[in-house]
Amino acid sequence: KKVEQSYLSTSFERSPYPSNEEIDEIANYLNVSKAKVENWFKQHRHIQAKRGLFSTKHRRLFNESELSKLEENYCMNPKPPRRKLDEISKVLNCVISHIKNWFLNKRKRQKRLFEQKIQ
């Protein structure tokens, strides 16, 4: 448990927002699930932010080619399963939470536009 904590802390110092490959590497090294590693990083960022040691604002702007890939996937399925989100995040080389947020925001925008058309 102490070795696990030490390894996670060292990894966090290197990169508080690890890529999917880094998460895979950490999970394989510690022999735990990816979800457990992702949750640990999320909780650790939150704890550090509460102490004023870390800024939780980490916005990701997508370029035009990335947006076209996201739009293409959205047209196929506005609520993709976890597996598909993971695949998209690997292709775009960003964390899965950015992909999840993009899809969530896109659905909200679509809903808002639809409601405005009705009125």
Layout of strands and helices, then pairs:
Elements: H1 2-14, H2 20-30, H3 34-50, H4 64-76, H5 82-92, H6 96-118
Helix pairs in contact: 2-3, 5-6
Task: Give a short overview.
The chain has six helices and no strands. It has helices at 2-14, 20-30, 34-50, 64-76, 82-92, 96-118.
What does this structure look like?
This protein is 74% helix and 0% strand. It has 119 residues and is mainly α. The protein has 6 helices and no strands. The mean pLDDT is 89. It is elongated.
Brief descriptors of the model:
74% helix, 0% strand, 119 residues, mainly alpha
Strand percentage: under 5%
How would the global form be characterised? elongated
Q: Strand tally, please?
A: 0
Which stretches are low in confidence, meaning pLDDT under 50 for 5 or more residues running?
A: none
Count of DSSP-assigned helices: 6
Quaternary assembly: single chain
Instruction: Quote the distance from N terminus to C terminus.
Output: 57 Å
SSE string, helices as H and strands as E: HHHHHH
Q: Give the overall average pLDDT.
A: 89
Structural class by helix and strand composition: mainly alpha
Q: Share of helix among residues? A: over 70%
